[in-house]
Structure formats: structure tokens, C-alpha cells
Amino acid sequence: xxxxxxxxxxxxxxxxxxxxxxxxxxxxxxxxxxxxxxxxxxxxxxxxxxxxxxxxxxxxxxxxxxxxxxxxxxxxxxxxxxxxxxxxxxxxxxxxxxxxxxxxxxxxxxxxxxxxxxxxxxxxxxxxxxxxxxxxxxxxxxxxxxxxxxxxxxxxxxxxxxxxxxxxxxxxxxxxxxxxxxxxxxxxxxxxxxxxxxxxxxxxxxxxxxxxxxxxxxxxxxxxxxxxxxxxxxxxxxxxxxxxxxxxxxxxxxxxxxxxxxxxxxxxxxxxxxxxxxxxxxxxxxxxxxxxxxxxxxxxxxxxxxxxxxxxxxxxxxxxxxxxxxxxxxxxxxxxxxxxxxxxxxxxxxxxxxxxxxxxxxxxxxxxxxxxxxxxxxxxxxxxxxxxxxxxxxxxxxxxxxxxxxxxxxxxxxxxxxxxxxxxxxxxxxxxxxxxxxxxxxxxxxxxxxxxxxxxxxxxxxxxxxxxxxxxxxxxxxxxxxxxxx
Length: 486
Prior knowledge:
Blueprint: H1 3-22, H2 27-43, H3 45-56, H4 60-83, E1 90-92, E2 106-112, E3 115-119, H5 133-141, E4 144-148, H6 154-170, E5 178-181, H7 184-192, E6 196-202, H8 205-216, E7 224-227, E8 234-236, H9 238-257, E9 269-273, H10 277-288, H11 298-312, E10 317-320, E11 331-336, H12 337-342, E12 355-361, H13 365-371, E13 377-383, H14 391-398, E14 401-406, E15 445-451, E16 472-474, E17 477-479
Helix pairs in contact: 1-7, 2-4, 2-5, 2-6, 3-4, 3-6, 4-5, 9-10, 13-14
């Protein structure tokens, strides 16, 4: 065992002890812990935003909004906890007249998995990092969290960890419920540790595959919730282009260059009718008006330029070649539906940065054909008009994506009850789950059924008196009070 492994072993062992206390905590206690973290983030807003700005080059407005999203997400999950909805407590009383024969008393509830390893993301220093969606969901589930700080913003990671641990301590949470590690070796040891029960990751497909294989090759494999990349295609019907082509083009350029194209939901493809010279000129002019800014890290800029260069060698033509350096000018390519049919890899290679491809079709029958060439996606968008025949296209997109948009742009991901941020591989490794929204908590829980246990031996969530005051499904009907806000 190396020194790094030994350090991670100590961290995880402490986290396991904290989990053994936290797993029996009430929804009210967990909600209080999460509210305390949100309050701490808000009270240190100026310090955190300044630190993030120094390390990421992101503008203050973007960072302010992301911090607001992060604290809102904590509070929304806390509020949902109080209803008991994530627990999915279900009670079937004994029934001698049950249709298939006498039924025993069976009660089921979701319980926390244990210690969870969370890998932070480079492109969202708040919302998908130290106390972003994955960490918040794991804490809401009753798990302990060991977070792997991303090397793109280490000082921010360390300071955020300090604030989280201080807030949890002040709120009465078990010591060591939340901890952090920082090196690549730490991350590998975290995935390997036998007390870690699940791992979540947001990043590149290459690194995500390595970690996924590592998690699967353990003596006891564990769930790996990886978000690995997405092209997020936008399909434009002929009528929509005729009615709104100019605005669609302008909004598309704004969307794929937003944040220097470093969003997992950036539209990497725009599938349109054949462009006129005027259409092409408008797109090129719109790209030329974008002022480039530094990418998150020099390494990301190098990786982007390499991916863009590889794409340029395929059956595509440059409308705007793009720039070099750490703040490269945006690039725009074009090709045809016939050419991507010959080389579908054009539609499968992510360029993580300010670059996108316009795929031109001759007839709308090609829309669904192009969609069928896609791999798994986080999002897919249709820009259409009322009465457009898009049923076949929508069916193809539904089979390949986690979120289908109509007349919008995918770069905004609202934190809501109904949100689905996930999709078939390689967008994610667990397409039945989401990493955004209240349903994200369920990734870090598993159901346990109790049959014929005496009431005092049942967890509070399943006892007849319902001491936690949560909504439950009893003999097929939802019942119980709805709790208020934390």
C-alpha cells in the first residue's frame, strides 16, 4: 500500500464511521444539514466567486449564477427530503384475501448505499464540483461523501470543502461525513476502496471509461455513475428554417459558443436544409462576432484544438477555421447528410470547446435517418413549426437521448422535479438515472423489504405511527402529511 493509498484508506474509514451514524438520521436532520451548507455558501459568496474567477477565467456573472444554482439545489433536495418522496416508503399489510393467495406483511423503503466517491468537474466549479449535484444527492440519501477535487480549481475545492465541513459540524452532522482528496492517485484509490459503495464522475469519455472499468473490475463491483460526453444535435425542419432561419442561426451560434463551448449540453450539430449563400454568410458573420476568452485550462484548450484538427480531416469543410492558443476563436464546419451517412463518426466525436458542425440535408426524410446514426446523447432538440411531421424523428431521438427539446436550446439545465440529465451510453453509464433534479438522490440508495417484522424493529419510515410524518404508499394508496420547507 502506498502513502496515498494509506491516506485515502484513513479518509474512507472515517467516512464509513460517519455513515454508520448518518444512515439512521431523519429527513428533518438531513434537510437541516443541507440547509446549513447552502447558508454557508451564500454567506461566503464574494470570497468563493473571486476565488473561482482566479482559477477558471469564467466571468463573474456566470459564477454568481452557478453559485445561486448550487445553493438552490441543496435547498430543493432538502425540501423534497421532508416529504419522504426519495424514500419511496411502501407498506402492504397482511391480507388473507389477496388475489393470488394470502399476502404477508411486506414493507419496503430506500436506504443509503454507504460511502460515495464523487469526482468533481472542470467546467462547473460550483454546480458539478465539491458540493454540486452529485455530492448534494449523496448527502440527501444519507451517504457519506469523499470528494475528489478537480485539478482545474484546487484552491476553490479546498476552501469549499472547509466551508462544507464547518457547516455540517455546526448543524450537528456526524464528524467526517464529508471529506476531500486531491491527487490522481487518490482518485484511483478511492474507486478501489472496498468501503466505497458507489462512484460518480463528470468528465471525458477516456477517463470515464478507465474509472468505469476500474469500478467494474473490483472483487465486488460497484455502481459507476459517469457522465462522459454528448454532441446534443439540433434538428431544424424546412418550415422552421424558412420561417425563422436567421434567428435560429444566431441563437445556435450563441449556444455553441456559450462559456467557450465548455458545456456538456453544447449543441455540436445543427441539421438544416441546404444553406443558401446568404445563410452561410450569416452564420460565418455571427461566429466572427464572438469574442473568444480563455478556456478553463491550457490542457483543455490543447485537447480541444487537437479534436478540432482531427475533425477537419474528415468529410467536413471549414466555414470558420477557428483560432489557436488558450483562447481560440470559434470554429464552424459544414457537411451533408449523405457524407455523415458515409462517415457517422463525424457525429460521434465531441469537440469540447467552441466548435460545431452544420449538417445540410436535401429532404426531410433524411432527418430521421441522420438521427439513427447518433450514439447516446444527453439532449436532442427539434426546431419545428406546428403541423410539421416529426413523429419518426422524435421516435429516433427518444431512443437515443435523455431530454428532447422543442424550439429551445440545450445549454440550460434547470434543477427541477422532472429534470432528466442522463442518457444512453456514452452520454452516461447509467441511462436510467439523472444527475440533476430531485430524482438524482435515488442513485445513492437501494430498496430493502421487511417481511413480518414487529413494528418496533422496523425503521421509522415504515412504522405504523409514521413518526417522520412522510408520505407513504399504504396498501396501494398514497397517504400521509406533506411536510413543509426546511
